[in-house]
Design brief:
381 residues, alpha/beta, Rossmann fold, 8-stranded mixed β-sheet, 6-stranded mixed β-sheet, 16 strands
């Protein structure tokens, strides 16, 4: 049974054909008012007829996202004036570009692929974010591809663009994790589309799934019941896949207290320092010398060094989280909120920068997040 989207406003880009067409049609027939965006007027009019025949309604927006990116901002303003919100966003518009060795790809072709697939997608995200926030349960999907990870020969521009789209989607989801908006990327797999025919001209279309099957699998991700965010949904496998994450984030639970960290980078010198227990350096603002005491990482005022499990293979990272600051009485506080807490250490130790004494922390202290760090601030671990 198809989900009910009655009373919801949905925007679909690349809606004149393929998966975008099927998704817009499915949303319209499920009760949503569809804002269909595409450059092909004929395809939009055909879509409108299909939606109205099924009892739905649509607003057609003939817009070339590549040639008129300013039109994306105008569209956001128009949606705000008429509806004041956006419940559903499906960022689907993309192009394949040339199937050619990287050395033979023309600069203009590469720029077009990146312009539509990456820059235009980012501008859609930027313009629609306030509208998604204004909805009671904003939901967004961004169409990706298996090419983002497979890196097939001759698919360089398209693969690079989809890898960038996945990175944008993950970043956007993390930034909005504390809101009601839920954002996921979707790998639709192979489908009976014009883009697929362009890429694989010798393939028999009738052997491939119809775009309507792909749309039916995506619809549940756009309902208020969806709680997953920042994940990649694989349509052929019908489940979410785990992103390839740095070990530090996987070990600490990226979806929990550390989800707002910007990232992690290896500390090369830490591998050469034979210490009992493994170190993680959380860079923040506090009293003390600049930098990480083993590696002297520049640009950090007062580093917290956490000695954790003796399994040295799992850690040895430096968190370059510029959003983090010590906040007296509440622990290390990301700028966007959410105290870092409940790290899964089997006993840990808070080490001061060079020249200061270390402070031992028990398991209970780690869980209770009450241990004082050096310099008088509280460091929640």
């Amino acid at each position: 049974m198809s989900p009910d989207f009655s009373g919801r406003v949905a925007l679909v880009t690349g809606a004149s054909r393929g998966i975008g067409y099927a998704l817009a049609k499915a949303l319209g027939q499920a009760g949503a008012h569809v804002i269909a965006v595409a450059r092909t007027t004929g395809g939009l009019e055909e879509l409108d007829d299909e939606i109205r025949a099924g009892g739905g309604s649509a607003t057609l927006v003939p817009l070339d996202l590549l040639e008129d990116m300013a039109g994306i901002d105008r569209l956001g303003g128009a949606i705000h004036e008429r509806w004041g919100k956006l419940d559903v966003l499906a960022a689907n518009a993309a192009m394949l570009g040339a199937i050619s060795p990287l050395g033979h790809v023309e600069a203009k072709v590469f720029e077009k692929v990146m312009g539509l697939n990456v820059t235009a997608t980012w501008r859609v995200m930027r313009s629609m974010e306030p509208l998604l926030r204004a909805a009671d349960a904003g939901r967004a999907v961004v169409l990706s591809s298996a090419a983002a990870q497979s890196c097939r020969p001759f698919w360089g521009p398209y693969s690079a663009s989809k890898a960038a789209v996945e990175a944008l989607t993950r970043t956007w989801a993390v930034e909005l994790a504390s809101t009601k908006v839920r954002i996921n990327a979707v790998d639709p797999g192979v489908a009976r589309t014009a883009m697929r025919a362009q890429a694989m001209p010798g393939e028999k279309p009738e052997t491939l799934p119809h775009p309507s099957e792909i749309a039916a699998a995506i619809l549940p991700l756009l309902t208020p019941a969806t709680t997953d965010t920042g994940r990649l949904f694989i349509v052929p496998e019908k489940h979410f896949a785990d992103w390839r994450k740095p070990a530090i984030l996987a070990s600490f639970g990226f979806a929990g207290g550390l989800r707002q960290f910007a990232g992690a980078a290896r500390c090369g010198k830490r591998r050469r320092r034979r210490r009992k227990g493994t170190m993680v350096c959380v860079l923040g603002h506090s009293s003390g010398r600049r930098g990480c005491s083993p590696c002297r990482t520049p640009g950090a005022r007062g580093s917290y060094l956490l000695a954790g499990r003796p399994d040295r293979r799992r850690f040895r990272f430096v968190l370059t989280a510029r959003w983090v600051r010590p906040r007296r009485g509440t622990g290390l506080q990301p700028w966007g909120g959410g105290v870092v807490s409940n790290l899964p250490f089997d006993g840990c130790q808070l080490l001061a920068p060079r020249g200061r004494s270390a402070v031992a922390i028990s398991d209970d202290d780690c869980r209770d997040n009450t241990q004082k760090s050096h310099g008088g601030s509280r460091g929640t671990v």
